[in-house]
Amino acid sequence: LLPLAVLNLLIFNMGVSIFLSTTHVFFRDTQYILNFINGLMYLLTPIFYPIEMVPSWARMFVEINPYYIMIRPFQLILNNFSDSSITVPFIISTVLSLGCLIMGYTFWQKMRDEIYAVL
Question: Which of 41, 71, 87, 88 pairs with 1 at a CA distance of 20 to 30 A?
Answer without folding.
Answer: 41
